[in-house]
From TrEMBL:
<dbReference type="GO" id="GO:0016829">
    <property type="term" value="F:lyase activity"/>
</dbReference>
<dbReference type="GO" id="GO:0004658">
    <property type="term" value="F:propionyl-CoA carboxylase activity"/>
</dbReference>
<dbReference type="Pfam" id="PF13822">
    <property type="entry name" value="ACC_epsilon"/>
</dbReference>
<dbReference type="GO" id="GO:0003989">
    <property type="term" value="F:acetyl-CoA carboxylase activity"/>
</dbReference>
<dbReference type="InterPro" id="IPR032716">
    <property type="entry name" value="ACC_epsilon"/>
</dbReference>
<keyword id="KW-0456">Lyase</keyword>
<feature type="region of interest" description="Disordered">
    <location>
        <begin position="38"/>
        <end position="75"/>
    </location>
</feature>
<protein>
    <submittedName>
        <fullName>Ethanolamine ammonia-lyase large subunit</fullName>
    </submittedName>
</protein>
Length: 75
């Protein structure tokens, strides 16, 4: 259910329902709808990193030029 429960949308198909029964059923359904709406709002995931932040990689460390810096590549 989205939004608030509108009691005028409740239709009873059972005959001979007393006003007290209508009030009780309406109260229970309203409470259930409010509980469901609260649970749905709590279940929403918290905002994480956006697509741009997720696509970024850590920058590589700087290259250090100089004698012996490329030694590991000489096989």
């Amino acid at each position: 259910m989205t939004g608030e429960l509108d009691p005028s949308q409740i239709r009873f198909v059972t005959r001979g329902v007393t006003p007290e029964e209508v009030a009780a059923v309406t109260a229970v359904l309203t409470a259930a709808a409010a509980e469901q709406a609260a649970a749905a709002s709590d279940a929403r995931p918290t905002a994480g990193p956006d697509a741009w932040a997720r696509s970024q990689r850590r920058l590589r460390s700087p290259l250090d030029p100089g004698p012996g810096a490329w030694r590991s590549f000489s096989g």
